[in-house]
Amino acid sequence: MNRVIYEPDFDLSVVGSLEELQEQVAGCTRCNLRAGCTRVVFGEGNPGARLMLIGEGPGADEDRMGRPFVGKAGQLLDKILEAVGLERFTHTYIANVVKCRPPGNRVPRPEEAEQCLPWLYRQIELVSPKIIVLLGSTALQYLIDPQARITVMRGRWLVSKSGIKIMPTYHPAALLRDASKKRPVWEDFKQVKEAYLNLYLSQG
Ligand code: SF4
Known about the structure:
This protein is α/β, with parallel strands linked by helices. It has one domain (2-6, 12-202): Uracil-DNA glycosylase-like domain (Uracil-DNA Glycosylase, subunit E). It is built from ten helices and seven strands. The structure holds iron/sulfur cluster (SF4). The site of iron/sulfur cluster has 14 residues, from helix 2 and helix 6.
């Protein structure tokens, strides 16, 4: 297993709960994306989930509703989770690399991700998952390695310095554009489900 460098560079340790963090993020203007979006999309799910999913950023539907993964890609994600016996609000917590919609759904710029990632890092610490699924190359490149390619890294377990198992896979939006990616994502989520079940077995 590769060892991943996972080093938060911004101290939000005084923020003691997800609710408190959400309040702070709601007022965030750390990058230019806030000026162009309707609302901040913080993330949602089971706050004690052992499985966390991390995507790229809000799209038009998410921006309108203030919730992550509610558009077509989100509906597909729900189906993928369901197919492996997981339910998003019961078993997962979902967030994105950036919490404000980039204009025209473009990829977040490095300076935007740099400003937003400390929020996500603290969110991860507060949820404290055992497994993280990185959905797409943006999450892979901003959280693991800017040079990493999702076509190479998907389906391969990584592990963070704190021991979180990390599985990169394709973003559901990529599956909507290219159906040939459905099979690999299915295989990746089967691995995730197996690891998830093993968490319980290892605890007796
Ligand atoms: S994208 Fe993140 S850093 Fe930028 S304004 Fe929104 S919450 Fe703040």
